Each structure stands twice: as structure tokens, then as C-alpha cells.
Amino acid sequence: MKYIIEIATADFNTTKNAVEGGADRIELCAALGDGGTTPSAGMMRLCREHFSIPIFPIIRPRGGDFFYNDAEFKIMHADVVLARELGCDGIVTGLLEKDGNIDIRKTSKLVESAYPMEVSFHRAFDRCRDPWMALEQLIEIGCSRLLTSGQQLTAPEGMEMIKELIQTANERIVIMPGSGVRKENIRELADQTGAVEFHSSLRSKLQSAMTFIHPSFVKTEESYFNAHIDPEAVMDLRKALQ
Q: Any bridge partners for residue 146, and if so which?
């Protein structure tokens, strides 16, 4: 069985470590603490130049909910076009109406503008009113992949729905478990749901290389700890699947 491991990264360095650890695909983000927002043009460009594996930037103009006004949608559309021009392989996005349904009109426009890139619909899905209707809508408008925790806080908690989504999708769209996916549970997720693609951030912190720490900030992590991914943690995910 060929399993795909997608790693959400926060910057160039975490992307480099994820690639070194054997990631199959990168969800490239900024501000992972906010759930991920669109990375800068410079970061997309440099990662595309340095790494050969598929790179999918998240297209999300801010943290918070997934109900976007027209100005925010214009930003998202421009970022999709930029990602395509920079040679990215796909995008990750998600848009909802205020009533909890998929924003079909805006999502369809992003799918059209992204072509020939793939489009993964992210865990905005887990906030949907009706997951089964949403699944069929995402298939209909041409999304390639759905990232979900089965409408629970973590994928292990949502395992039963993930299994049902995979069965219902019947290979019309990839269902990829994400949130709380770790080496301790990834094998069970594969066995119990039938999933073959998995998403994880494996987030940790690394102390800054700064030699001067201002006394006023000595007890804070704000300026002296950086986002980190241990390449061995990615390797451990792969080993657990084997």
C-alpha cells in the first residue's frame, strides 16, 4: 500500500525539515497558531525553487471563521492565481456560508482559477451543517481532496465518520484525515478508516539562536522560540504506517 503523508509547515525551515524527513507533500502555511494563513509570495517562490515534492499553499486571508466577504475573496482569488504562476502543485482552501453550508459559488471560482492545480478543501468542512451534502458538493465542483477530522476536534475522535466519508466518496475524492494525527495513532487510522493519505503538522518549538535575550522578555517564548519540525518525527510517521 502506498501511503501519502502531507505535512503542514510554518516557514521555509520547517518545510526543509519536513522534506528531509520524507514528507510526500507540503501544506505551506503562515501563522499555524491561527490554523494557517496564506504564506507570502517570497516563501512560496523560495520553497518552490528548493523542493521538488508537491507544494500546496493554504489560501486563507486571516484566522477565525471561514465566512469571507467580497474583499477577502478577492484577496484569496489573487493568491490562487499567484500560487499557480509560481508553479505550485495545488492549493488548500475552504469557504462557508454564514448558515454553515459550503459557499459553492466562491469555492467553484477558486477551483476554476486554480486549474490545472489540485484543490484540497480543508477543515472548514468540519464546521459544515450537513457533511454528506457538503461531500457531494465538493465532488461536483471538482475538489481533489478533503481534509477532515470527521467533524470532531481530532481525527482519532472522528474515525467513524472518516470511514463513512471514504466509503461514500468511493474514490471520487480523496478523504484525508487530519488533526491529532501522530505516530501513536496513524496505523489505527489507516486500518479503521481505509485512508491512504494523512495530514499532520508535528509542531514543536526550538529555542532561538539569539545570544542576547532582553531581560523584559526572558520568561516569554514570543521572540526567542521558533516553529520547528523534527525530520525524525516525519520519519516516525512513515515507520508507523509500515
A: 121, 175
Task: Give 40's DSSP letter.
Answer: P
Q: Is residue 29 within 8 Å of residue 37, measured between CB atoms? A: yes
Classified as helix, coil or strand, 237 is: helix
User: Distance between CA atoms of 94 and 92, rounded to whole angstroms?
Assistant: 7
Q: Which residues pair with 8 in a beta bridge?
A: 27
Spatial separation of the C-alpha atoms in residues 89 and 79, rounded to whole Å: 14
Helix/strand number for the chain, H first, E second: 8, 10
pLDDT tens by residue, 120-168: 999 999 999 999 999 999 999 999 999 999 999 999 999 999 999 999 9
Closest CA to 76 of 45, 100, 103: 103
Question: Whole-number mean pLDDT of the chain?
Answer: 96
Cell of 135: 461531500
Residues 58/39, Cβ–Cβ less than 8 Å: yes
What does the pLDDT average to over 33-57? Answer: 97
Torsion of CA 177, 178, 180, 182, to 10 degrees: 70
pLDDT tens track for 16-31: 999 999 999 999 999 9
Please give the share of the chain, as a percent, with pLDDT higher than 70.
100
Name the residue among 7, 67, 58 with its Cα closest to residue 35. Answer: 58
**Domain 4-241 grouped into CATH 3.20.20.100:** no
DSSP string across 101-135 = SB-HHHHHHHHHHHTTSEEEE-GGGGG-S-HHHHH
- C-alpha cell of residue 67: 465566512
